[in-house]
Amino acid sequence: MPDVQTNHPEGPQPLGEQQLRLGVYVWIDLPWTAHPFLRNRFRISSDKQLKTLRELGPKSLYWIPALSDAAPLPPVTSAATPPSPPPPPAAPVAVATGEQRLRRQRLIAARIQREWDASSQQVRESLLGMRDNPKQAGAGMRDLAARLASAMNQGPVLLQLLGKQPGEGLQHHALNCMTLSMLLARSMNLSSTTVGAIGLGALAHDIGKLLIPAHVLRAENRSSVQESWYREHCRLGVELATDSGAFSEHAIAAIRDHHEALDGSGFPAGKLGPQIGVAARIVAIANRYDRLCSPESPKARSRALLPAEALKTMWRDEQARLDPSLLAALVRLLGVYPPGTLVKLSDGSLALSVSPGKSSLLPKVLIHDPDIDKSEALLVDLADTAGQLSVEKSLHPDEMPEDALAWLNPRESLTYYFSDESVD
Questions:
Q1: What confidence tens digit (pLDDT) does each residue in 119-178 have?
Q2: What is the bridge-based pairing of β-strands 379-381 and 61-63?
Q3: Which of 69-78, 83-92, 176-185, 411-420 has the lowest mean pLDDT?
Q4: Is cis: bond before 268, omega within 30 of 0?
């Protein structure tokens, strides 16, 4: 049991089961798998919670005055009320349910990580191979995109933020763009073949940069000569893709036109809206979002936008350049609090959004809980809390206490992938 300083007027205070009432902020001093609640600490807000707490039997219950909206009921004395028989033991299903949920969460996360690792290795090898063996490299990327498009076509999929991944290779940005592009294409009810072609174009949209000097790519403020050189990556990418023979018209269009803008201000050809196909529009959206969150120039990374800031910037300032209907689709896909966003919840808890939820306003979150190790924490879908938890506001890391920030550990570079939610 942790050291509980019950002599402090604002610290945790012992609490009897008969003292429970609405508005009391309780702390269950047990592993979360030993009870059916999502968290060990919460404010009692429903009769159902009261009933369940009372049915738990003799447990280590405390209340925290500073976080409570009401004081507990007075203790029941033996003179006023005859002794009652001991309550029945807690149903074992509560423990099993908690353990099963954590096990299921770990299995899904492990599978997503395995799939990302395998895809990352394949994409890295293919990107590096495009210069020397474009046919084999292009076929590898084509097969990966087709396989993932087919998997997406099987049913609902889960987009999830991953932990920090090693390295900073081109494959990270390529996989992020592919993931977002394919999910956007899928949301438009495009065929599996078209989704795969758009995913392939997203994977390879920057292959022309393999032929651009590294100092040009890393430059934060390019000279006019460097900028002209940089813009050649679209043409060079099309040449590599064409030489491979693995790219469809949709995929090549995405490589050629992903920097074009609806208002004609893009490059390389300054095309206007009607001249830009759907594949390029989708990849342009995915590329822009990921680059706002993870800039290409190392020097610019200190100015990277938070995910919610990136969405806001695109929606507020860039609708003339980007397809507004696809921007709206991106917001629906990522939610108002996209993966990687720090948030404050309605009960005062701090959390990290890790996956879109059933509602754009209610993501799946990892809630800061100092009583447990992060590896034991359960992801909470706010849509499943029956209105008991919601997002109060998003937070900047500077607004977070150091201990909570270290526990939640939001990453400077975002990596996300997708899978279904089944457990094999």
A1: 999 999 999 899 899 999 999 999 999 998 988 887 677 787 887 666 556 788 999 999
A2: unpaired
A3: 83-92
A4: yes
Q: Which residue has the tokens 């900073």?
A: 168
Both structure tokens of 393: 């506001």
Question: What tens digit of pLDDT does each residue of 215-236 get?
Answer: 898 888 899 999 999 999 999 9
Give dist(CA 178, CA 242) in Å, integer. Answer: 19
| Alpha carbons 287 and 160: distance in angstroms, whole number | 18
Look up the CATH superfamily of 95-334. Hypothetical protein af1432 (1.10.3210.10)
Model confidence pLDDT, tens digit, residues 325-377: 999 999 999 999 999 999 999 988 999 999 998 888 999 999 998 878 887 88
- Residue 353's Cβ-count burial label (10 Å; 0-12, 13-18, 19+) is buried
- Tell me where in the chain the CATH 1.10.3210.10 domain(s) lie: 95-334
How far apart (Å, rounded) are the C-alpha atoms in residues 149 and 178? 10
> Nearest CA to 382 among 408, 367, 364?
364
How many angstroms separate the Cα of 373 from the Cα of each of 16, 366, 368? 27, 12, 10
Task: Quote the CA–CA distance of 61 and 367 in Å, as a whole number.
Answer: 21
Per-residue 3-state assignment (H helix, E strand, C coil) for the chain: CCCCCCCCCCCCEECCHHHCCCCCEEEECCCHHHCCCCCCEEECCCHHHHHHHHHCCCCCEEECHHHCCCCCCCCCCCCCCCCCCCCCCCCHHHHHHHHHHHHHHHHHHHHHHHHHHHHHHHHHHHHHHCCCCHHHHHHHHHHHHHHHHHHHCCCCCEEEECCCCCCCCHHHHHHHHHHHHHHHHHHCCCCHHHHHHHHHHHHCCCHHHHHCCHHHHHCCCCCHHHHHHHHHHHHHHHHHHHHHCCCCHHHHHHHHHCCCCCECCCCCCCCEHHHCCHHHHHHHHHHHHHHHHCCCCHHHHHHCCCHHHHHHHHHHHCCCCCCHHHHHHHHHHHCCCCCCCEEEECCCCEEEEEEEEEECCEEEEEECCCCCCHHHCCEEEHHHCCCCCCEEEEECHHHCCHHHHHHHCCCCCCCEEEECCCCC
- Give the chain's radius of gyration (CA, Å): 26
pLDDT in tens, 88-108: 554 444 444 567 778 888 888
